[in-house]
Amino acid sequence: MSELSASAIRTDQPIKESTRWLQLIVGIVCMVATANIQYAWTLFVPEIQGTFGWARAEIQIAFTIFVLVQTWLAPIEGFFIDKFGPRVMVAFGALGIGLAWILNSQATTLMGFYVGAAVGGVGVGCIYATCINNALKWFPDRRGLAVGLTAGGYGMGSAATILPIAAMIKSDGFQETFFFFGLLQGGLAFIAAWFLRSPKSHEVKASSKLEQSRRDYTLKEALGTKLFWLMFSMFIMVVTGGMMAVAQLGVIAQDLGVKEFEVNMYFFTMAALPLALMLDRIMNGISRPLFGWISDNIGREKTMVIAFTLEGFGIIALGYWGHNPYAFLILSGIVFLAWGEVYSLFSALAGDAFGTKHIAKIYGVLYCAKGIGALFVPVGNLMMEATGTWSSVLYTVACMDLTAAVLAIVALRPTLAKHVAYSSDLLKREQAAAAAGQPAPAV
């Protein structure tokens, strides 16, 4: 018999707000400590290439391996989250992210960096999946905001360390930088892990503003719905452009001739690339809670239309005006602002549609879309080399963003409404069958 969720979200007992907000803060700390494996990678690529002379595309395979491992193991990690709980999973992940950077610090071959990327993918995947899962469970009434803040920790977490990492690479070399920050970040996440726990049923409450399924779907049931695969396809479309920007921004800046341009901000002067990276991380971090909060109030689908359209036109503008260093700064910030929200909107929508009892496994499969998007990162280099311009790459991913924006309103909105209505009817029939001692109706 399918599991029912009528008692999964209680509203008749008081909720101690400080408890769940503390859990949210701890999750954010863990995400901040994890962020640099993905978001600081672009700083290391030119140094690795200059030291060993490998082609960019060969080096960027490491980034693809990292993302593939991080995302495609998420369903398995979801199983272990349910089995062992958040503390053990995050502590294990912390050891992984620390070891990954230490391996990178000692690597002298491409295979060495590939192994480090794989280990880092496991570590980041464990921490990311666990903290997102915990936020979804603690805040069913504010999923967009809670997941946005948690994912924002990952998106914005590297903002404070971009400049120290860049400075240390310049002064001590990239190997020493990998080693030092590996120990620092891994140790911080390991300590924070032991403060995490899952909520009890009386500690959470449902949203009064959004349509949410009161039925907990199993992974098999979720995979059998049209809604899941529509979300999966849209996730791939939108995440591809952002992944391209994350991995290639340093290379794009170099090819556009703006990497070393000194930007005079009156109070200080900074090269365009590190300034762009710092601003982009901030915008990426703001994006997730901002759009998450908006979606809690106006709905996920309408918010997707706004964000995906903004990202699409931002990427088109970056391809057209990116040679201007000031335009490069502004437009790359817009791209990151409009991209970061995918990690709050799709995870919150998954919780709304399928419940939270099995959300670690369900969102784990949905999150694999990020891995598919990562496959296009090396392809972006090949496209640029074939056409001689980044514009062809940027215009391609912009079209994908705008297609997803259209789908959000013409396909996702009606499909979600039908799914929630069906879930409500199915839950009533399952409860009636259970009360009568009869088999549950087929899903």
From TrEMBL:
One of its GO terms (cellular component) is membrane. Residues 22-416 form the Major facilitator superfamily (MFS) profile domain. The chain crosses the membrane at residues 21-41, 61-81, 88-107, 113-132, 144-166, 178-196, 227-253, 265-283, 304-321, 327-350, 362-380, 392-412. InterPro entries: MFS, MFS_dom, MFS_trans_sf, Oxa/Form_antiport, Proton-linked_MCT. GO terms for molecular function: oxalate transmembrane transporter activity. The keyword Disulfide bond does not apply. It holds the Pfam family MFS_1. Keywords: Membrane, Transmembrane, Transmembrane helix. This is Oxalate/formate MFS antiporter.
